[in-house]
């Protein structure tokens, strides 16, 4: 955290994201605060806490006309305020067009190879432009009088924002971090507004992705589509006399030896028995998966891998239970509502096929869980399954590793995640290969304890060294140095 502050060298930090870190619900005079299910929020929050910056995000939760005026600027975290949260309130039509429409029915399937057809509507595009402008207005207001502001824009909701900010505040140092993959140029060209998106992004001084492959796809797309000079040696682009660097910064989580907050005599076995008791099941071995119920996450393939494993290794029938924590997400979008039903019915089908007595193969906990609750499941599980069909990074993989202060537990990890490039000691699988993924479950449960410990120790070392502060310090450090070079 100290390192991040020193990179900022006295400059003020402004972060922009669509999702806000705390959802405040006012009922009369009572406020309840919840934390949304978002890898981005988990990752960014410790940085804001360390740097006392300003976070601009979409206001959510209950907000009638009266509360909006009073609550568009708050000090958070609510229990121990450390930074400013500036909230931009969107109308239902703006949210529908910009967030559900352009960002999540257009860009999300466009950038993930998960075989859902992107939908691009001209009306959504209008709202996407208008909402990017509204965030630009809020940022410019927040940055008033700042001599050397550093702006970190988050994600695909704001491709147009870098240029809007640079046009209005040319001395701001602006980076955008794209949390999802970038596809190849042919795929990207499906988007009718690809030129505008690229031009908006190239307003930034620095464009970050999780992995080099996504940087390369982005540079190839620019090369193909725009009048711009792509410098493949330095991974940068020159357009209208302005250079943008395009570099990988693999995002991460916080891992300290005492981050589990557990007493030394804490027993992971006792926790497992407690969870089994609470769920009212009979099981000896537990697996866990934690996702938003999103069609990119490979949840159905994962259930089918559990089925294949139980078929091929019948001695685990009655013994192995897979717990899927699935947070509801983007449910206004028909494809998400449909996917939610598919996940439920696949779990029911497999349970009906195998269940006996108090044992069943799949427990689907279909609600949002707090970080604290999720960490209990991580600690109780012999194996964690991350089987995304495509994922920028996937922080569940790193959170599982961070939670295993006992050096136990096996991670099964899709090769199509950014995390697979770093966590080489996971069992790397192709989630489309159902039998192969099922075999990985058997391998995990039968792995020798010394191998489990060796693998987990190496993964913990990696996450500890390349933690979320390292990510922020690298990104901010690079951004500040870029300016000096010019
Ligand atoms: O992975 C991309 C991402 O935008 C994350 O950055 C974020 O945590 C997640 O999707 C959640 O999505 P939403 O904010 O739409 O619920």
TrEMBL record:
<keyword id="KW-0812">Transmembrane</keyword>
<dbReference type="GO" id="GO:0003825">
    <property type="term" value="F:alpha,alpha-trehalose-phosphate synthase (UDP-forming) activity"/>
</dbReference>
<protein>
    <submittedName>
        <fullName>Trehalose 6-phosphate synthase</fullName>
    </submittedName>
</protein>
<keyword id="KW-0472">Membrane</keyword>
<comment type="similarity">
    <text>Belongs to the glycosyltransferase 20 family.</text>
</comment>
<dbReference type="GO" id="GO:0005992">
    <property type="term" value="P:trehalose biosynthetic process"/>
</dbReference>
<keyword id="KW-1133">Transmembrane helix</keyword>
């Amino acid at each position: 955290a100290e390192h991040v502050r020193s990179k900022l060298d006295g400059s003020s930090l402004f972060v922009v994201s669509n999702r806000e870190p705390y959802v405040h619900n006012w009922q009369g005079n009572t406020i309840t605060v919840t934390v949304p299910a978002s890898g981005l929020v988990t990752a960014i929050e410790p940085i804001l806490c360390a740097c006392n910056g300003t976070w601009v995000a979409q206001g959510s939760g209950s907000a009638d006309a009266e509360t909006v005026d009073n609550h568009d600027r708050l000090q958070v975290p609510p229990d121990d305020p450390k930074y400013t949260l500036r909230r931009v309130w969107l109308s239902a039509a703006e949210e529908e067009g910009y967030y559900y429409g352009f960002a999540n029915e257009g860009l999300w399937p466009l950038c993930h190879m998960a075989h859902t057809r992107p939908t691009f509507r001209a009306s959504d595009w209008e709202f996407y432009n208008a909402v990017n402008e509204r965030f630009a207005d809020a940022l410019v207001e927040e940055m008033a009088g700042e001599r050397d502001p550093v702006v970190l824009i988050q994600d695909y909701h704001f491709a147009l924002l870098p240029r809007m900010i640079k046009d209005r505040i040319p001395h701001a140092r602006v980076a955008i971090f794209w949390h999802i993959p970038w596809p190849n140029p042919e795929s990207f060209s499906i988007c009718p507004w690809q030129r505008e998106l690229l031009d908006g992004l190239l307003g930034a001084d620095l464009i970050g992705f999780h992995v080099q492959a996504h940087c390369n796809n982005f540079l190839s797309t620019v090369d193909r589509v725009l009048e711009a000079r792509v410098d493949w040696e330095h991974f940068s682009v020159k357009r209208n006399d302005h250079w943008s660097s395009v570099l990988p910064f693999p995002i991460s989580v916080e891992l300290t030896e005492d981050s589990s907050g557990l007493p030394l005599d804490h027993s992971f076995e006792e926790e497992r028995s407690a969870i089994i008791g609470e769920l009212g099941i009979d099981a000896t071995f537990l697996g866990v998966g934690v996702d938003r119920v999103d069609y990119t996450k490979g949840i159905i393939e994962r259930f089918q891998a559990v089925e294949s494993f139980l078929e091929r290794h019948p001695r685990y029938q009655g013994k192995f239970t897979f717990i899927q924590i699935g947070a509801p997400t983007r449910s206004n979008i028909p494809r998400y509502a449909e996917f939610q039903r598919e996940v439920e019915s696949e779990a029911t089908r497999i349970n009906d096929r195998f269940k006996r007595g108090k044992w069943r193969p799949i427990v689907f906990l279909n609600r949002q869980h707090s970080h604290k609750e999720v960490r209990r499941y991580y600690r109780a599980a012999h194996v964690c399954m991350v089987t995304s069909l495509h994922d920028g990074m996937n922080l569940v993989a790193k959170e599982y590793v961070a939670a295993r202060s006992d050096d136990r537990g096996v991670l099964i990890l899709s090769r199509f995640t950014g995390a697979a490039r770093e966590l080489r000691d996971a069992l790397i699988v192709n989630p489309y290969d159902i039998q192969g993924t099922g075999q990985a479950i058997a391998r995990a449960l039968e792995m020798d304890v010394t191998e489990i410990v060796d693998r987990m120790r190496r993964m913990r070392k990696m996450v500890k060294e390349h933690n979320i502060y390292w990510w922020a310090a690298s990104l901010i450090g690079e951004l500040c140095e870029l300016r000096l070079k010019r």
